[in-house]
Amino acid sequence: MSDDPTLNVAALLDRIGFDPEKSILTRRQAEVLALREQGEAQATIANLLGTSRANVSSIESSARSNIEKARETVAFAETLRAPVQITVEAGTDLYDVPAQVYGACDDAGVKVGHTAPELMKVVGDEAGDAVTGRQVVKPLLIGVTHEGVVRVRRAEQS
Predict the structure, then answer these.
(1) CA 95 to the chain's CA centroid
(2) Directed axis angle between helix 42-49 and helix 5-15, to 10°?
(3) Which of 101-135 are b and which e, b meaning 16 or more Cβ less than 10 Å from the residue's Cβ?
(4) What is the pLDDT of residue 91?
């Protein structure tokens, strides 16, 4: 990091094309995240921005929350348009999920870009507490896009 991290962060935001008009992040949130990614402590950032460490912490937390909401929105939109959508019922063994996904994808002519172990990991990771150990404990909706991207969402129980 140079002697003036504020110049670096402005240059970084410009170089990567940050546009607050098209972003869910404010410029201040982007600055804080950029400085944190460059290894700056919250106290240092607070000094640079003329604010408190608590405010920097709040800005960073809001920015990360906005990013997570954006990811969730993208996952939702991708699942909506996915040509393959299967529901995995509660009580299903996670080891049985790849066969269900591969079968539905074969029927739709969609190629999944994951081996069975990779697919189980994706499902387990994205399902959160809907999967415990090898057991699906809450129904899941698994969507696979035309590009083979797998999206996992909780299925609404009727």
Answers:
(1) 24
(2) 90
(3) bbebbeeeebebebeeeebbebbbebbeebbeeee
(4) 96
Tell me which amino acid residue 49 is: L
- Describe the crossing of helices 27-37 and 53-81 by its angle, rounded to 10 degrees: 100
Q: Which residue do the tokens 């170089």 mark?
A: 15
Instruction: Output phi, psi for 23, to 5 deg.
Output: -110, 155
pTM above 0.70?
no
Mean pLDDT by 10 residues, the chain (158 residues): 65 91 95 93 94 97 95 85 94 97 96 94 93 96 92 76
The confidence score (pLDDT) of residue 157 equals 53
Three-state SS at 33: helix
Long-range contacts of 152-157 (CB under 8 A, 24+ apart): 152/122, 152/123, 152/126, 152/127, 153/75, 153/76, 153/79, 154/127, 154/130, 155/87, 155/88
Domains of the chain: 5-72 (no CATH), 82-154 (3.30.470)
Rounded Cα–Cα distance for residues 156 and 158 (Å): 6
Residue type, 30: A
